[in-house]
Specification:
CATH architecture of the largest domain: 3-Layer(aba) Sandwich
Distance between the termini: 18 Å
Helix content: 40-55%
Strand order of the largest sheet: 3-2-1-4-5-6-7
CATH topology of the largest domain: Rossmann fold
Number of domains: 2
CATH superfamily of the largest domain: Glycogen Phosphorylase B
Largest sheet: 7 strands, parallel
Length: 368
């Protein structure tokens, strides 16, 4: 059995972390085991499940103190010689962990690109400087989409050698569920309303401020409509204030964190993602598995389009134009999209076997 050290922020229910858990659950743990290097001290939503599957969780001092971080990593690799590869998912900050692995003789250093831009925060300038260096410290280049790979590693380096890793899901789990639709709609008093759905952390990147303006315009056209927001985040209070100012408080439902997100897709009639940027959003794949019509910003890679019920709108398009595009879909019968998703490479059972084979091949390189 080989152990792969996955470098993450922490194992909360977010896009990258959920993607990793999808793969982890479907690996043969007698051949490949995941351990996790969290770079935030906050306990993660998935921690107990990881431990139940034999995974270990290490918590680093974080990236704010480079010297302290490097000392911690040196000690970690010294105490755990079983690690011969590291798989990093930290955006531009993955340079830290890849450099630490390089200094400590780890011969397989996978850099995984998950986005096509850098989050806007006080570390933005540092991250912009770090991003171009990653390709010189990593040994292997993986990405959720071609656009993400090219953004982090350059088109030339990506074209020369890459692994496109689809954000695969358990397609059967997300197939449309009429019973769940009826049960949750009754529980939340949604009745026969046209339900516009969104799943994601309430953060700047996801641009839910735009979504609120879009829904306000839509609600004027179709009063029998409801926006349902599944997820939590630091912008929740600001978004609720915006909803109040728009006068649509009763027409917007904030559900908070939900463990049955798969069922919520069956509740929705259309799924909307108004992000400033994405790599290839897992939620977009999940929504299509539920045969949901989807409206995405055109900054999201077109690779996300798997079914014929996907539309793209510009960030600069006005709210009413978005609203009318969403309303074009209306309500339709839903069916299984398993074949479409599997053919496009999003069936987790198939893709987990492929990732497992990649790890085993890379492990052989450490003995060369």
């Amino acid at each position: 059995m080989i152990r792969v050290l996955q470098s993450v922020s922490n194992m909360d229910r977010a896009g990258i972390e959920t993607m990793l858990m999808n793969f982890y659950r479907n690996m043969d743990h007698e051949q490949v085991q995941f351990d996790f290097l969290a770079n935030k001290p906050k306990p993660g939503d998935y921690d107990e499940e990881i431990k139940s599957m034999g995974g270990r969780i290490f918590v680093s001092p974080g990236f704010m103190n480079y010297g302290k971080y490097m000392r911690y990593m040196t000690e970690l690799f010294k105490n755990h010689p079983e690690y011969r590869m590291i798989h990093a998912h930290n955006g531009s900050l993955m340079l830290y962990v890849l450099r630490a692995a390089q200094k400590n003789g780890i011969r397989v250093r996978i850099a995984h690109a998950h986005a096509t831009a850098i989050p806007f925060d006080f570390k933005n300038g540092v991250k912009m400087c770090m991003r171009p260096i990653i390709k010189y410290v990593a040994t292997d280049y993986w990405g959720c989409s071609n656009a993400a790979g090219e953004y982090y590693f350059s088109k030339r380096r990506w074209d020369r050698g890459n692994q496109l890793i689809h954000n695969a899901i358990d397609v059967d789990k997300f197939t449309y569920n009429e019973k769940a639709r009826r049960r949750i709609r009754e529980q939340y008093d949604l009745g026969d309303k046209l339900v516009i759905g969104h799943v994601g952390r309430l953060t700047w990147q996801k641009n839910q401020k735009k979504l609120m303006d879009i829904f306000a315009a839509l609600h004027k056209i179709e009063p029998n409509s409801q926006l349902v927001m599944v997820g939590t985040g630091e912008l929740e209070a600001k978004l609720k204030k915006q909803v109040s100012e728009l006068g649509i408080t009763d027409a917007v439902t904030f559900t908070g964190m939900q463990t049955n997100v798969d069922e919520w897709y069956s509740v929705f009639d259309t799924f909307v993602l108004s992000s400033w940027y994405e790599g290839l959003p897992v939620v977009g794949v999940e929504a299509q598995a539920a045969d949901l019509p989807c409206v995405f910003t055109d900054t999201i890679t077109p690779e996300v389009k798997v079914t014929d019920r996907v539309s793209f709108m510009g960030l600069n398009d006005d709210a009413e134009s978005w609203a009318r595009e969403i309303l074009k879909f209306g309500k339709r019968d839903r069916e299984s999209r398993f074949g479409d998703l599997k053919n496009a490479g999003y069936d987790i059972k198939t893709e987990a076997k492929r990732m497992q084979s990649l790890y085993l091949e890379l492990y052989k390189r450490t003995n060369g």
